[in-house]
Specification:
The complex is a heterodimer of chains A (157) and B (150).
Chain A lengths: L14 E2 L4 H6 L2 E6 L2 E6 L6 E3 L4 E2 L1 H20 L5 E10 L9 E10 L3 E9 L8 E9 L16
Antiparallel strand pairs in A: 1-2, 2-3, 3-7, 4-5, 6-9, 7-8, 8-9
Chain B lengths: L1 H8 L6 H7 L1 H6 L1 E6 L2 E6 L6 E3 L4 E2 L1 H19 L7 E9 L8 E10 L3 E9 L6 E10 L9
Antiparallel strand pairs in B: 1-2, 2-6, 3-4, 5-8, 6-7, 7-8
The chains are: A alpha+beta (157), B alpha+beta (150).
Amino acid sequence: MSDLPPTAPEHKAGFVLSNVPHAAALQLMIVEVRAGEAVCKVPYAEHLIGNPDTRVIHGGVITALLDNACGVAVGSKTLLMGQIATLDLRIDYMKAATPGEDIFAFAECYKVTKNIAFARGVAYHTDRSDPIATCAAAFMLGTKSQRGANVSGAGGK
Amino acid sequence: MELIRRAHAEGKKPDLQAIVDAIPYCKFLGIDIDRKGTELTTILRFSQKLIGNPVLPALHGGVVGAFLEVTAVIQLMLEAESEDLPKPVDIGIDYLRSGKPVDTYARAIVTKHGRRVCNVRAEAWQDEHTRPIAALHGHFLIRPRETATP
C-alpha cells in the first residue's frame, strides 16, 4: 500500500491513493481512516463491468477494494504502511452489486501479533448489514520495501 | 450471458476469447487466453496500472486475486455447461510471492463438478511454473442448461 499518514481529519473528505497506480486506475478512494479502521470506496465505472448483460461490477473489483481497505486498516494500526504484505484473503460473495451504485468497503484490523495482523472487512452500497461481500485477511508485517528499496526493476520476492 | 446462450443455441462451444473480450473488466486488466485443446492458460499482460506497491514494485493483491478468479471462471466455462457466467460464492487466495512487474500466467483445475456448485483451484506464476506467486481455491455457482425444462 502507500505512505499514508495515520489519522488526519482531511481523510474524511476522501482522496484517491494516487501513488498506488492500481488504486488510481480504479479511482479507489479512502473515505475515512481511524487507528485500525478504514472505509474505502470504488465509484461505479463502465470499465469495471464483469457481466455486459447485467452491467454488474466484476467480483475482482471487490477483491481489490477489500484487499486495499484491509491493508489500510492494518497500516493505520501498525503504522507499517508499505511494509505489509497480504498472506491470504478469503472473500464470501453474498449478492451481486447493484449496477450504477458506488461500492464501499469497511475494514478493521482486529488483532496484531509480532509477525501477523488479522483484518476483516465488508463491502456494501449504503448499509453494512446488507453486504455485497465479506472478507477475512491475514497480513505479514515488516516485509521489506522501503528498507530494501530495490535497486532496479529486477523486483524482489 | 448473451454470447454463451447464442453459442449453446447454435450447438457450439462458446468462444472463450470472445467472452473475455466482451467483459470490460477483463479488457481493463488485460487478460488473454492461450488455448491448446482442453488445456487453457490465461495471461495477464503487465501494465503500470496493475501496480499496488510502487516501491517494490509489486502487482496489487486485488489484481492477482481477480486474475485467478477470472481464470477459474474461464476454466469452468470450458468444462461446465453453464447457461451463464459462473458466479463466485467464496474464494480464498494464498499470496505466495510478490508479483513482479511482468506478465503473469495462470491455470485452473475443476476439482469437483457438482450440479450447481463447482470447486476450482487456480495457480498463478510468472517466470517459473514451479514458483507460483498466488493460489486460489473457490466455489462457483453454475446454472446448468437442463434446468430450463422442468
